[in-house]
Design goal:
By secondary structure, this protein is α+β, with helices and mostly antiparallel strands. The chain has one domain: RelE-like (YaeB-like fold). It is about 40% helix and about 30% strand. The chain has a five-stranded mixed beta sheet. Helix 1 packs antiparallel against helix 2. The protein is globular and about 35 Å long.
Length: about 100
């Protein structure tokens, strides 16, 4: 299976914050490299939507996929992957997903 993905506004904000944090703490080069690795992981998820760990106990139909220090929270919806959030692994997923 190979589908496309769509990034929510919150996930886009997450990506921008991750990139900004990486610049401030490492470098522009490292920020770009990490950002690209997250986007590549989106592509992997599109090829294998079942690759992530189900989190139905937190939010029905959602899965997580780890990428270094972050978790991609997504679901398969209407023939595409919906990227809901990209959260640091120490963040409380449940409170950040809402309803």
């Amino acid at each position: 299976m190979n589908v496309t993905y769509e990034v929510s506004k919150l996930a886009q904000q997450d990506l921008e914050e991750i990139w900004r944090y990486s610049i401030e703490n490492w470098s522009l080069s490292q920020a770009d490299k990490y950002y690209r690795s997250i986007i590549r992981e989106f592509d992997k998820i599109c090829k294998q939507p079942e690759i992530g760990k189900p989190i139905d106990d937190v939010k029905k139909g959602h899965r997580t996929r780890g990428i270094k220090s972050h978790l991609i929270v997504y679901k398969f919806l209407s023939g595409k992957i919906w990227i809901d959030r990209v959260l640091h692994q120490r963040m409380d997923i449940e409170t950040r997903l809402g309803d």
